[in-house]
Structures are given as structure tokens and as C-alpha cells.
Amino acid sequence: MLDLHPHLKAILVEQNLDAITLGKQLLDGHTWICKDMKEFKELPKADLCILSYSLGEIKPFGTFLERLWNAPIDTIAIIEPGTPAGFQTILEARDLFITKHANIIAPCPHAFQCPLKGKDWCHFSARLERTKLHRLLKGGTLGYEDEKFSYLIVSKKQHPIKGDRILRHPCKGSGFVRFNLCTMDGTNQEKVVSRKDKELYRKARDAKWGDLFQKDPDH
Ligand SMILES: C[S@@+](CC[C@H](N)C(=O)[O-])C[C@H]1O[C@@H](n2cnc3c(N)ncnc32)[C@H](O)[C@@H]1O
User: How do 73-81 and 103-106 pair as beta strands?
Assistant: First the structure.
């Protein structure tokens, strides 16, 4: 069973009744709606709308995203599989939101053209615990799995961007850390921080894939 913060009120939309039955076993006490999300005449007012592994299933989604952006919703988060196809969905959504002058909150630290477009795919990784049942169903032996995902968070509200995004696991060598960064000026750059740069090196040792890397604390 999942727990949401007691002050959170969630409205969960899913078109498949069997998925809702299962979902209710995981998260009850909230509003579940069995409906095609494109069919809402009026989208509900919300602080946050999460499209979890579903936008890629409703292509073409331009009209739906425009409606979502025009709805009384502050922030929209989209999560897709961390594959080239999932990233392509994220890129298309990002391009659309940029034409709406949305504030890009994450992962991109800028609203310029994506520097990875056509070269690589932007994705991140979250370590999930595997239960015994999970291991059995997936035929796995490890007690965890690393879920790869691509994502985008946009908002009508402004949010200061505080650094470059770390793409991929930083390479932590003896006396240096090498990063692959998406920078605030819209470039994809490799950056090496050496032990000589004491303050920055301390930060670099702790930095992880997906974090923002803040060069200058005054920014
Ligand atoms: C990959 S699953 C993800 C399920 C869940 N959202 C999650 O994050 O674990 C995609 C789900 O999207 C649902 N879906 C696809 N198109 C939909 C639509 N137009 N309206 C509502 N649900 C839809 C499917 O029924 C399916 O359960």
C-alpha cells in the first residue's frame, strides 16, 4: 500500500478498469476515474498534473497537451521510459511547451534547443527495491532494479535555475571528477573538477547523476 501526504488530494485517471482495481489496492482513499484522459470536457483544477508513462500511448498528443496547458493546472510533470523513444516523446512535449512560454523546471536548466537532440537521449535512473514477489515475477535475483526514465517538469510559475544538470554517472577518479553536463547556456559539455579546486571538488565528490551541479553558490 502506498501512502500520500495526508494533505494531498489525488485524482487518478486510467482508462482500464482492471488497472484501476489493482491501483486501488495500492492507493485507496482517493478519487479514481475510469476514462480516456483525452475525453475530459473540463480538466480539474490542480497544483500538479503527472502523466506517468502514459503520454507516449496517446500520440499524437499536441491537442491534449495544449488543453492541459490551458487548464487551471500550475505544474505538469511527464515521465516516460528512459529509452530513445521515451526521450523523443519528452522532446516533442518540451518543444510544444516552449512555444507556450512555459517555465522549464527540470531536468533542463534552460529553454534553448536540447543539445542532445539527434545525438544521445537524456535519461536518469532511480533505484527501486524489489520485493520477493517482484523478483519472482521478473525472474531476477538482485534485491533492487535501476529504473531508467526520461522526464520533463514545466510550470506556469517561475522557479530559479540553480546549476547545470548532471547527465550520466559522474566518473570519480583519483583526484578528479569528470561530468557530462547539460549547462544553463544550453550546451552539452564535459567538465573535469580537480582536487586542486578544493570547494568545488568536495561538492563534485558528492554529486550524483540527475543532480544539479552548482558551480558558484552565489548564483
Ligand atoms: C505503461 S502504463 C502506466 C501505468 C501507470 N500510469 C504507471 O505509471 O505505472 C500506461 C497506462 O496508460 C493507460 N492509458 C493509455 N492511454 C490512456 C488514455 N487515453 N486515457 C487514460 N489512460 C490511458 C493505459 O491503460 C495503461 O494502464
Answer: unpaired
